[in-house]
Write a structure and sequence with these properties.
Adenine deaminase, 24 strands, Urease, subunit C, domain 1, Metal-dep_hydrolase_composite, alpha+beta, nine-stranded mixed beta sheet, disordered N terminus, 12 helices, eight-stranded mixed beta sheet, Adenine_deam_C, single chain
């Protein structure tokens, strides 16, 4: 096929039927199957790490597929798709610096790359014009926890794929802790183009220490932001792109299918006009199919929320406003959790410390006192037959009235409420239970704003655009009640049960 350019980008057209297949031997990309050079001269060769990722085998080309890849590479058959004339980035090594970017065609058969050849050497039924633009491997993220984004895997795909991310290597610990093996399957069996593999063994550190909820991902970007930021700090584009493509793939022993543009690898690539630009890729191809164009996904999220993952938050039927008494303090005073400022900058995370203080008391028991920035906190959790309610004091939140309620991934199934009155604590707890989990802001018995997270109490089933608006609403409502934390509900949920200490 040929390509027609439109206002929305490249479109595929049929290749004339008389176009002959070439039999020229494909060019081999330099370093395409080499390991990195050893760290020390004379040191042992670097070998792949032991397999640490499951569900990989289904993405490896079968013998029949490999046979067809070979026929296409030999010019005996046409490719399904040819990415024509792009400046292909070689991420394997830089032993020949001038050849880290080569003008090449990429021939794709089904989900895999058949050959990387000189322009025009071989034909295909469809083609994508990449002339004058760079062709990079799709990004591989080994540091993202899906539940931290607050999105279902299908909605996360709609947000990340247009930014060039093709694969997540996830730590499923929290999902398995609350959902069992089905929790991991929920993350890895999305029907969207985003590939999610469950990672085992030692967790890999994320590429950034900043939180990556839907808010940050939508505003700043994902690994595309990391590449842009690394180049701004002085890294070469080759180094920055390698760090989020081949490096994580090799670390988790999946570089035989991911992380580079070479024969038999999955056809996961992106076409960009400028290297390390903050703009989204022009085109993203995943598994041999065009998945996104000009920052827009070309697929819908049709994944249903699994019924077993809904309604997992359960409170005792006997819970009432009198269920939140603080323990009687000892003569030395009460212990309270103090939320300390994280410093300057919106991404600075506050810290926690334990302080002892003389609480405001009523009837011999500590009570919330907004005039002293003292709020009551209740941590509600445990198995359905033995739910516990632990109550204490917290300061540094800033609430002058009302209550905040939220579920937390640090202890899946746990519900936490912070507030200035027991009635509002109860209203917040019941509201979160009714949503199946999430964030809620309550004032004088009324729910002022909410962000439901009904999937395991950790993720939304709504479109990511709607979740973004709901989070903005709960942040604004919390600020109206005096809360002075940046992104208060997500910040507090990130601390989990560390927010409570026995008075």
């Amino acid at each position: 096929m040929n390509v027609v350019r439109t206002s929305r980008g490249p479109r595929l057209m049929s290749t004339p039927p008389h176009a002959p297949a070439r039999t020229q031997t494909p060019a081999v990309m330099p370093g395409a199957d080499r390991e990195d050079p050893p760290a020390r001269t004379g040191g042992p060769p670097i070998r792949s790490a032991p397999p640490s990722t499951v569900n990989v085998q289904r993405h490896v080309a079968s013998p029949a597929q490999i046979a067809r890849l070979r026929r296409v590479a030999a010019g005996e058959e046409e490719a399904d798709l040819v990415v024509r004339g792009g400046l292909v980035m070689v991420v394997h090594d830089q032993s020949v610096p001038d050849q880290s970017v080569l003008e090449r065609d990429i021939l794709i058969v089904g989900r895999h790359i058949a050959a990387v050849t000189r322009p025009g050497a071989l034909g295909g039924r469809r083609s994508l014009d990449a002339e004058g633009r760079y062709v990079l491997p799709a990004y591989v993220d080994a540091g993202l926890r899906i539940e931290d984004t607050l999105l279902s895997p299908g909605e996360l795909a709609r947000l990340l794929v247009p930014r060039g991310t093709g694969t997540l290597l996830i730590d499923p610990t929290a999902l398995v802790a609350f959902g069992g093996p089905a929790g991991a399957r929920f993350a890895t069996e999305s029907t969207t183009p985003l590939r999610v593999l469950a990672r085992t063994g030692q967790a890999a550190p994320p590429t950034s220490g900043d939180p990556r909820t839907v808010t940050e991902l939508a505003a700043r970007g994902h690994l595309d932001h990391e590449v842009h930021h690394a180049v701004a700090r002085g890294a070469t584009p080759w180094e920055a792109i390698r760090q989020v493509t081949l490096r994580p793939a090799r670390r988790h022993a999946v570089d035989h299918i991911l992380g580079s543009l070479a024969p038999t690898r999955l056809a996961d690539l992106q076409v960009v006009t400028n290297l390390a630009s903050p703009a989204p890729p022009d085109v993203v191809v995943l598994g041999g199919r065009i998945a996104a164009e000009a920052g827009r996904p070309l697929f819908d999220n049709l994944d249903p929320a699994p019924t077993w993952a809904l309604g997992r938050i359960r409170l005792p039927e006997t819970l009432y406003a009198g269920s939140f008494p603080c323990p009687v303090p000892d003569p030395a005073g009460s212990a309270a959790v103090s939320i300390e400022s994280g410093g300057s900058g919106s991404s600075s995370r506050p810290g926690l410390r334990i302080v002892r203080l003389a609480p405001t008391a009523r009837g011999g028991r500590p009570v919330a006192d907004p005039s002293r920035d003292l709020q009551k906190i209740a941590v509600i959790g445990g198995p359905p037959e033995a739910v516990t309610v632990d109550v204490g004091l917290v300061r540094g939140c800033g609430l002058v009235r009302g209550a905040l309620g939220f579920t937390t991934a640090q202890a899946p199934g746990q519900l936490i409420v912070i507030g200035t009155s027991d009635d509002d604590l109860l209203t917040a707890a019941r509201a979160v239970e009714g949503m199946g989990g999430g964030f809620v802001v309550v004032d004088q018995g009324w729910v002022r704003a909410a962000c439901p997270l009904p999937v395991l109490g950790l993720m939304s089933e709504a479109p990511w655009e709607a979740v973004l608006g709901e989070l903005a609403a709960v942040d604004a409502a919390a600020a109206d009640l005096g809360c002075r934390l940046a992104q208060p509900l997500r910040t507090l949920a990130g601390f989990g049960c560390l927010l409570h200490t026995h008075p």
